[in-house]
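Technical annex B. To support the medicinal chemistry partners, we prepared a structural model of the target in complex with 1PW, based solely on the information shown next.
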Amino acid sequence: SMTAVEEKFSLTEVLSSFKACLEKENQDVLMDYYISGWKGLVRFMNSLGAIFSFVSKDAVSKIQIMEAFRKSSSGDQYRSLQSMVAYELKAKLVDLNKRAEHSNSGCRTILRLHRALRWLQLFLEKLRTSTENSKTSVLCTEAYNDSLANYHPWIIRKTAMVSFYALPARNTFFEVMNVGSIEDVVTMLGEAMPYVSQVYDITQQLYAQHNLLDLP
Ligand code: 1PW
């Protein structure tokens, strides 16, 4: 349950939010679970050390933007990513070419989280298939360069790289996940990651379909 995520951190529960995200009938991505999954990822990042909080701060502010939409009078429109896209586009609440009066639309905010989710996906997959001698900083940097780095200006890339060097070793990483032995983590990731991938793929398709992948 969502309360359990608040009380005791375990990456298993975080990743299960992404499983709960997908509505059975129509594959809509449910906002509340998406947000709850992200909150768990932030706790995960924060438990990796203070240096990494630079990375989580931006995710936190974006989560807050989405929670505010959800609590607003138009909250029902933000029930799923699909309903959000339909609503914001119809009501012209999205800055399409240049940030202006709708600088923090739900669409552009979720796009940033969506791109970051790709990083997480690549990184956890690398971690899952890593060996004892693998360096987390290298795995994280590779995942970053293949995803988010393409959207970040030089100064952010530089800061991100520096904070990756401060990442704990592979063993600590597996412990922080709070899942069990390394074999348990590997099994759990093997089972859970397909759900994260599915959420990623459906979101990517939704954004591509509406030409929203380059929102400023
Ligand atoms: C080990 C777990 C890794 C999970 C990574 C997920 C979080 C990644 C957040 C990176 C944030 C770096 C600093 C912020 C940069 C923002 O400028 C940028 N945000 C993101 C999420 O890429 C773009 O947002 P903006 O400036 O257009 O509002």
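Notes passed to the chemistry partners:
Residues 41, 45, 55, 58-59, 112, 115-116, 119-120, 123, 148, 156, 160 surround 1PW (CB under 6 Å).
The radius of gyration is 17 Å.
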